[in-house]
Write a structure and sequence with these properties.
Elements: H1 2-25, H2 29-42, E1 45-52, E2 57-58, E3 63-71, E4 86-93, E5 95-104, E6 109-112, E7 117-120, E8 126-134, E9 139-150, E10 157-171, H3 174-224
Parallel strand pairs: 2-10
Antiparallel strand pairs: 1-3, 1-4, 3-8, 5-7, 5-9, 6-8, 9-10
Length: 244
């Protein structure tokens, strides 16, 4: 009995000791994660971002904005260039990439027409993004394009490029100017109608007060005048002659 008890205790002690040694030799999870992040960053390589360059646009008109990412290679002679003006910048690629367009000013609305995150894993990979941009007011709008590299399929950021920004003047159109003039005229007419209605109301109130005051004065005058007493005529006395 004692032998069995000693054996069980020794077995438990050895199991605990082995488990402790195994735990002591396991790398720390946080350190391992840091090593993987550093390794992923080192595996990234130069890339090129190309995006739409805008001059002046018109209010109320929707237009397309495009951006693309690819491995950094010289353009081939037979490569077809996209129509319109383009800007080009350098960035890092080689992982899951995300491109966002941030819009502000001139009541602008930006609608994404493609997936925000796409893979650019080799120098020959190309990823493209598209947006529909529509300013609703005149003035100046700002478009800022951000390029972000993510660690695998997570939201952990490996690298993020400072925004590629541009300011765009938003001009008016003939139809928009006519609509604005019609809107202003409608506002003026509404204002004048409100003033006319207010004048009529004031005149009505003044007339009502005047009539009320006149009626009140007339009533007071009737109350102050004393009532007239009826006049009674004294009877005529007839003198009688003395009879003889």
């Amino acid at each position: 009995m004692i032998t069995w008890t000693v054996g069980i205790v020794l077995t438990a002690f050895l199991a605990t000791s082995c488990g402790g040694r195994s735990t002591e030799h396991d790398p720390d999870r946080q350190a391992l994660y840091g090593q993987e992040i550093i390794k992923s960053r080192k595996e990234m390589f130069d890339g090129r971002v190309t995006y739409t360059e805008l001059g002046s646009v018109k209010v109320g008109r929707s237009f397309g904005f495009e951006a693309s990412l690819r491995g950094f290679r010289l353009a081939k002679p037979h490569e077809r260039q996209a129509p319109g003006r383009r800007r080009t910048g350098r960035t890092l690629v080689g992982t899951l990439m995300g491109v966002k367009l941030h819009c502000s000013g001139a009541g602008v609305r930006c609608t994404a027409l493609s997936s925000e995150r796409q893979n650019v894993l080799t120098p020959d990979d190309v990823a493209e993004w598209q947006w529909a941009v529509k300013p609703t007011r005149t003035g100046t709008m700002t478009l800022a394009l951000t390029v972000t590299a993510y660690y695998r399929d997570t939201r952990n950021v490996l690298f993020e490029k400072p925004p590629f920004s541009q300011e765009v003047h938003v001009g008016t159109t003939a139809s928009h100017a006519a609509q604005g003039a019609a809107s202003d005229m409608g506002a003026v007419v509404t204002f004048l109608a409100a003033l006319l209605g207010l004048g009529v109301a004031c005149a009505t109130i003044a007339d009502f007060r005047q009539r009320r005051t006149a009626g009140k004065k007339q009533g007071d005058g009737k109350k102050k005048s004393p009532p007239q007493r009826p006049r009674y005529h004294s009877p005529v006395r007839v003198r009688r002659r003395n009879r003889r």
